[in-house]
Amino acid sequence: MLYFIAGMVIFFGAHIYSAVRIRGEHDIKNRIGYGPYMGLYSLVSLIGFVLIVYGFGALKGAGILYTPPNWARHVNILLMIPALILLVASQLPAGQIKRVTRHPMLVAVKLWAIGHLLANGELNSVLLFGSFLAYAVFDRIRVKRRGDMGPDLDVRVAGKMDVVSIIIGVGVWTALAFWLHPVLFGVSVIA
Asked: Residues 69, 155: one domain?
């Protein structure tokens, strides 16, 4: 439990700091430079993530908070399709998907967390997915308060980026659903 909690504090601490930090000329990113800031931020996040993964595995069997209905597993499988498409879209130049959702990664994290909360009632799962959902809601509120409304309405949209997002997102979903999820996470998605 200690590794899991430490990982959550480190990972979400870095992300919460990033969400609430002062922007402008006194911003630490401007003072130390974009590269060093992103390198440090990535290193801290990676350390937290590794601790979360290790702690999550160590917490297996810690207890069940609720037993999800059978249909919830199917809903989760379906929610992962748009979640992965949105995750890919968040990393590409703006298409309609990015312009309409404004912050596609936050929407993807919410879909991923809600789907997995529906399908998993174990203590470690509820803590993990519940924390990611809470953070995504918190960050969306912070983004809106900062006035960051995603890509500008007049930004040049590349429709092919939507096609690329869909192809890659569905490809990743297929790989996870049929092969990688059991290998990476020890749980079979499609029986």
From this structure: yes
User: What domain range is 54 assigned to?
Assistant: 1-59
Digit-coded pLDDT (tens) for 56-66? 989 888 899 99
pLDDT in tens, 94-138: 899 998 898 999 999 999 999 999 999 999 999 999 999 999 999
Q: In this structure, are 80 and 173 located in the same domain?
A: yes
Here the tokens at position 57 are 């595995």
Q: How far is CA 52 from the centre of its chain?
A: 14
Same domain for 140 and 170? yes
Distance in angstroms (rounded) separating the CA atoms of residues 37 and 91: 19
Cβ atoms of 115 and 80 closer than 8 Å: yes
Contact residues for 153 (Cβ-Cβ < 8 A; gap 6+): 99
Q: How many domains does the chain have?
A: 2
In the chain, how long is the greatest CA-to-CA distance?
Answer: 54
Q: 189 and 149: one domain?
A: yes
From the number of C-beta atoms within 10 Å of its C-beta (0-12, 13-18, 19+), residue 48 rates as buried
SS3 122: strand
User: Which of 102, 97, 106, 85 lies closest to 157, judged by CA?
Assistant: 97
First to last CA, the chain: 30
Chain centre distance of CA 97? 17
